[in-house]
């Protein structure tokens, strides 16, 4: 039976499939730029969805910047220094990230470390990874970042490089994003989801009905870290540049959390919505402010930081006034209007 | 001294107290008895401001308790000894007592009050530097009462002082209650241990499911057949 | 790869002892920073992710007072401490108070937003160049070892401040209330303690400590907008290692970590000192995630 839901899904999918053409129609000439924006949104949406695997069950980690960083750097370093194709490199990176995630998570979950403590622990871990990245500067390029060595003209299946062809990149990333959504739905419908929901409400009660809380948490952590590592690696392959602050570090972690909370932590499209919100916001600020001539005249060099300033300000205001995210706040207003 | 008229209170959608009216006069010891869940602790919380009342009036020597912010209620002379003592476990006995004298009027007389409380409870003086959390239940109760007395209160609210204590200690606790009564403090005591508390109180109210269903002198209630059957197992 | 190991240079000689003692001196500053964070967490149950950025603000303020306004250094120091104490209070009142009921991650995010904001504001006001007050205090020599006066003074002042704070916490009513509030928040009104006032007082003290740290750091380090990212995570790590909210724990952890940094830094390269410190941290946390002095939940 074909329901309305199926139809809207089909329409949405169709639109996404022909999006590059639509963009070309609306923005002839600058279509590469807008496609680039959409690609960024999709990659980050995938990463944010990965984080929300843990976030929706109360496991709010500020450490996912470490996983994206591990994903990107391990892949690039294996390619640059050992000639190992990302087809092997990426799974290796994901494995490393998963192991790291489980190693950090295990003592926390066993000892019921949650909330502030857990967030700060994961923050420290992010910093540790960033320090390693900067410290190993002979390989990683230190704070200046590094690039995967271009293979031929940059379009290669073997090297998993596709940056010059934006349209191709778009479809690849679209597929990845869809896989992320499928994973989300699968988890959402699994028994593990109910186990984790129960655990996030009352661990003792959950344990008393036979749920192995630690194991469930470790499973979801492994999945989450693997997804984010994968996202980080793909980011590196697309951007053809990685840096300790662009794909790793505290800033990345904070952005992930902000985006998911803004978009809605409990829904399928919440993280994606958050990606649209934060990426468009950051880009608008960057282009609008840095590009503005009047501002450059007024503030000179300082204009470069204005976008970050406003971003920070908006983050603060957002949390204070819309802690349930855009969707959550709108939903509440809707309910209130509908009456008791 | 303390006058409640038609007090309603609850937790969100759940109403716990219905139209409570009661008085405590100066110098009296008044008991509120009832089963678990009857609303006794809720009543205490409403009086000391930890929980807002939803309707009714509540005054202490004429001052409106409902409009007084929670941290100012002690300045009206009401000291609350919370359920389960609630001492600060990692502070010393003396620090706990010091906090009892936090309000400016009590600070001025801290040294005197401390001597007074130590005089009343010499055991506390022995243990003045000991961490409160390491003391026995009975000693903790002594400390909790001492802490309440530091502010030279007019009315002492005792919330289930015998709860969680061994029977032998329970005896000691009610001895403490008699002590402070003999020192002249007005006491409102909420208790599950009906037989013991009715020996200490002048008057009592019986609370059932949030309503006062009986009141009278302690002797009357102790002699009442229903109460003897339901609460004293006789 | 092997260059890494050949650069290890760790004999138990005078340089080792020098590093050890420098570790003690560094510990003073780190302990002061950890103290501020632990105090705020212990009392208010929030973590100011932007704590290091408050220190940065203090550093820039002192720089401004001295270089632009031409004020004498001691006055600039006092004003700096006052300024950051006010900043801490404002931070609590404007940003933290509205989110006290929200889940911890939101509280962390909101201070994260302030982090971005302060870094950007500093960049806009002062640019990205490194600033320095140009204070050279020289060093003192003990045989082959030399110690910078700035570090010795920092240690002494930090120690003094911590002792003063301890006196305040144990001998005054507000101090005792501050120690009590983390043990049982709900009954504080029964003692006549206005929780809001305690929070504001604590925020002011936390800010003041950050301001003091700024004074000490200005003597030793260059000032730049991203400086918070250099020592911020380090301070968080120290707090978590010692047991979040536990002031004694923070002190001990600062000492241990400082030793790793200076000794590790003198054996290998400077960054690796930090990385080894973090590695030690990860190992301890693996065994005891609540921290050395933390309570099991």
Using the CA coordinates, give the radius of gyration of chain A.
21 Å
Total domain units of chain A: 1
**End-to-end Cα distance of chain A:** 34 Å
Mean pLDDT, all residues of chain B: 88
Which structural class do the helices and strands of chain B define? alpha/beta
Number of separate structural domains of chain B: 2
Q: Helix content range of the residues of chain A, please?
A: over 70%
How does this structure look, described?
The complex is a heterotrimer of chains A (340), B (234) and C (297). Chain A has 15 helices and no strands. Chain A starts with a helix and ends with a helix. Chain A is 77% helix and 0% strand. Chain A is globular and about 60 Å long. With 234 residues, chain B is an alpha/beta fold. Chain B folds into two domains: 1-77 and 156-234, Rossmann fold (3-Layer(aba) Sandwich), CATH 3.40.50; 83-153, no CATH class. Chain B has ten helices and ten strands. Chain B has helices at 40-47, 93-100, 104-107, 110-120, 122-126, 137-149, 167-182, 194-200, 218-223, 225-232, and strands spanning 2-11, 14-24, 29-33, 55-60, 63-64, 78-81, 155-159, 186-191, 203-208, 211-217. In chain B, the strands form two sheets. Chain B has a six-stranded mixed sheet with strand order 6-7-8-3-9-10, sandwiched between helices. In chain B, helix 2 (93-100) packs parallel to helix 6 (137-149) and helix 6 (137-149) runs parallel beside helix 7 (167-182). Chain C has one domain (9-224). In chain C, strands 1-2 form a two-stranded antiparallel ribbon. In chain C, strand 1 and strand 2 form a beta hairpin. Classes of the chains: A mainly alpha (340), B alpha/beta (234), C mainly alpha (297). The interface between A and C is large, with 56 and 60 residues.
């Amino acid at each position: 039976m074909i329901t309305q839901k199926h139809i809207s899904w089909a329409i949405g999918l169709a639109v996404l499939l022909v999006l590059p053409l639509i963009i070309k129609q609306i923005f002839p000439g600058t279509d590469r730029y807008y496609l680039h924006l959409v690609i960024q949104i999709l990659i980050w949406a995938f990463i944010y969805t990965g984080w929300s695997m843990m976030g929706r069950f109360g496991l709010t980690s500020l450490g996912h910047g470490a996983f994206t960083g591990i994903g990107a750097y391990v892949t690039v370093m294996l390619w640059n220094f050992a000639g190992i194709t990302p087809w092997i490199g990426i799974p290796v990176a994901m494995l490393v990230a998963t192991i790291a995630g489980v190693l950090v998570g295990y003592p926390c979950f066993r000892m019921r470390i949650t909330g502030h403590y857990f967030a700060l622990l994961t923050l420290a871990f992010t910093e540790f990874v960033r320090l390693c990245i900067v410290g190993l500067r002979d390989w990683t390029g230190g704070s200046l970042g590094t690039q995967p060595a271009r293979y031929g003209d940059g379009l290669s299946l073997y090297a998993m490089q596709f940056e010059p062809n934006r349209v191709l990149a778009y479809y690849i990333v679209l597929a990845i994003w869809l896989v992320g959504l499928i994973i989300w739905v699968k988890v959402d419908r699994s028994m593990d989801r109910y186990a984790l929901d129960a655990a996030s409400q009352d661990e003792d009660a959950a344990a008393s009905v036979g749920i192995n809380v630690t194991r469930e948490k470790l499973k979801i952590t492994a999945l989450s870290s693997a997804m984010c590592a994968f996202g980080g690696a793909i980011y590196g392959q697309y951007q053809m540049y990685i840096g300790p602050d662009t794909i790793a570090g505290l800033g990345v972690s904070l952005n992930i959390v902000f985006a998911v909370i803004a978009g809605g932590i409990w829904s399928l499209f919440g993280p994606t919505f958050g990606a649209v919100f934060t990426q468009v916001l950051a880009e608008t600020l960057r282009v609008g402010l840095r590009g503005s001539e009047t501002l450059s005249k007024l503030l000179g060099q300082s204009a470069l930081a204005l976008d970050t300033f406003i971003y920070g300000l908006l983050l603060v205001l957002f949390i204070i006034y819309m802690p349930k995210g855009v969707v959550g706040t709108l939903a509440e207003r809707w309910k209130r209007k509908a009456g008791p | 001294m303390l006058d409640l008229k038609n007090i309603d209170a609850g937790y969100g959608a759940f109403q716990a107290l219905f139209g409570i009216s009661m008085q405590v006069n100066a110098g009296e010891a008044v008991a509120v008895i009832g089963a678990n869940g009857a609303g006794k602790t809720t009543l205490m919380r409403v009086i000391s401001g930890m929980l807002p009342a939803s309707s009714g009036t509540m005054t202490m020597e004429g001052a409106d308790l409902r409009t007084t912010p929670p941290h100012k209620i002690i300045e009206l002379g009401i000291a609350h000894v919370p359920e389960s003592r609630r001492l600060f476990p990692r502070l010393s006995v003396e620090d706990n007592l010091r906090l009892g004298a936090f309000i400016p009027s009590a600070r001025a007389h801290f040294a005197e009050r401390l001597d007074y409380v130590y005089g009343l409870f010499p055991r506390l003086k022995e243990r003045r530097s000991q961490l409160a959390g390491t003391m026995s239940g009975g000693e903790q109760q002594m400390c909790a009462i001492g802490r309440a007395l530091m502010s030279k209160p007019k009315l002492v609210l005792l919330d289930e002082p015998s709860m969680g204590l061994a029977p032998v200690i329970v005896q000691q606790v009610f001895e403490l209650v008699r002590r402070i009564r003999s020192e002249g403090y007005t006491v409102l005591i909420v208790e599950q241990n009906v037989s013991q508390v009715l020996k200490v109180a002048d008057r009592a109210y019986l609370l059932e499911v949030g309503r006062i269903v009986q009141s009278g002198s302690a002797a009357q209630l102790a002699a009442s057949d229903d109460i003897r059957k339901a609460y004293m197992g006789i | 790869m092997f260059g890494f190991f050949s650069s290890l240079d760790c004999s138990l000689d005078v340089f080792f002892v020098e590093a050890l003692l420098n570790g003690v001196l560094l510990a003073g500053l780190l302990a002061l920073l950890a103290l501020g964070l632990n105090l705020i967490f212990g009392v208010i149950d929030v973590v100011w992710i932007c704590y290091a950025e408050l220190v940065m603000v203090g550093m820039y303020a002192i720089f401004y007072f001295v270089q632009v306004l031409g004020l004498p250094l001691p006055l600039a120091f006092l004003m700096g401490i006052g300024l950051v104490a006010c900043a801490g209070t404002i931070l609590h009142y404007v940003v933290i108070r509205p989110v006290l009921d929200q889940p911890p991650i939101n509280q962390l995010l909101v201070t994260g937003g302030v982090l971005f904001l302060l870094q950007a504001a500093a960049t806009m006001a002062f640019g990205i160049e490194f600033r320095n007050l140009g204070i050279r205090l020289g060093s003192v020599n003990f045989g082959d070892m030399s110690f910078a006066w700035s570090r010795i003074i920092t240690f002494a002042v930090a120690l003094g401040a911590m002792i003063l704070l301890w006196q305040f916490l144990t001998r005054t009513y507000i101090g005792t209330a501050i120690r009590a509030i983390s043990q049982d928040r709900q009954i504080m009104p029964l003692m006549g303690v206005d929780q809001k006032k305690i929070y504001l007082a604590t925020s002011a003290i936390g800010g003041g400590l950050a301001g003091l740290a700024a004074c000490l750091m200005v003597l030793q380090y260059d000032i730049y907008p991203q400086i918070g990212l250099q020592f911020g995570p380090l301070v968080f790590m120290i707090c978590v290692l010692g047991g979040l909210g536990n002031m004694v724990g923070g002190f001990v952890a600062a000492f241990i970590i400082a030793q790793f940094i200076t000794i590790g830094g003198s054996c290998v390269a400077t960054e690796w000192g930090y990385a080894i410190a973090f590695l030690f941290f990860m190992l301890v946390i693996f065994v005891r995630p609540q921290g050395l002095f933390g309570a099991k939940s």
